[in-house]
Model the fold of this input.
Amino acid sequence: MLIYIVVLIIFMAYIGDGVKMEIRKVQKLGYSTIVVSLPRNWVKEKNLKKGDSVIVRVDEDGNLRIEPYEAEGGKRKREQYVIDVSQIKSPGLVKRILIGNYVLGHDNIIFLNKNERLSPQVLKEIQDAISRLAAMEIVEQDLHKVVVQCFIDPTKFRLTGLIRRMYTLIFSMLEAVQEYLKDFDQNVLMQVINMENEADRLYWLIVRQILLAQKSWRVAKEIGVDHPYHIIGNRALAKSLEEICDRIEDIANELNRIQPENIEKFKEVIAILDSILGDLKELLSLSMMAFIELDITKANDILNTLKVFRDRIKELDTNFITYIKDPLILSVFRVIVSCIMRIADNADGIAEITINRALEMPSKICRWEVVEETAE
Done:
């Protein structure tokens, strides 16, 4: 007897908020029908109701994929996310809502206030957010409404490429700071701040890609996510790189607090700082190569080197306290030392992610063996 596999929509709760994967039992309905329920949150997200149709596909691995289907012409429904601006009173929330929707992969976002004109503050927050998001544009605007749309094809941006670009920006930012320590041109510090804005755009794009990969295994394969476990590691890696960019921007802002003619007096301190930034750049370069190559030995060497590097930074901080008497300059250099320590901490985290990812595959160092045990 043929067994027909039918998808029966039953409104059931997830085990917990935010859970994307569950184990569900197949059940028998009647004499020959096997059914499995769909998660309630997914049904709600896709706006499915009793009687709606879904598409059931078999992928190349033999797994079933379920997608919403609109009966009229087989067209899929386009989702729009409408934000009622009249309900928002907290400054900065409009900007964060737009960035949050972008990260979640929402392509069409509408900011609406039916009762009043959109305030200049709301419009400014929308523009500020768009300036930090790749391929996000205003496509429609009137006194009461702003429609924002994202024009990204996620499959065109592989995660490895985006991570390389983040590293390249980090190197450029560090080189710019070192360049400033040579000629004290404050325009160079402004370039660091501009590069940090580009780093933000890359970071939000990476996070968007990661979350889209979590929703769709097809997208995950297209952008180079080989295993669900990698999603967490990639998110942690992206955050570490973004924080490194933030700390380099902090270094530039601190240096900008001192007039060039005042900082030039501390030539020995500047030489030491330049040397440390050069070593930091080398460590981050090795960190990138270890991650790309998934080289467990290189990653471990970085962790060992970072211990020595931190001791050197602590000694530098002590020297600053001893020899710099100007309160402003001492404050600036101590903040810079703190920023460098935090960058080292992030490099530490990246090396650990590299080791964990490398251990997922057998190697000369660590291989897998299956041992058959005999029952006593």
Summary: Strands lie at 4-7, 27-29, 33-36, 53-58, 64-69, 81-84, 108-112, 136-141, 145-150. The chain has three domains: 4-74, 81-150, 156-358. The mean pLDDT is 86.
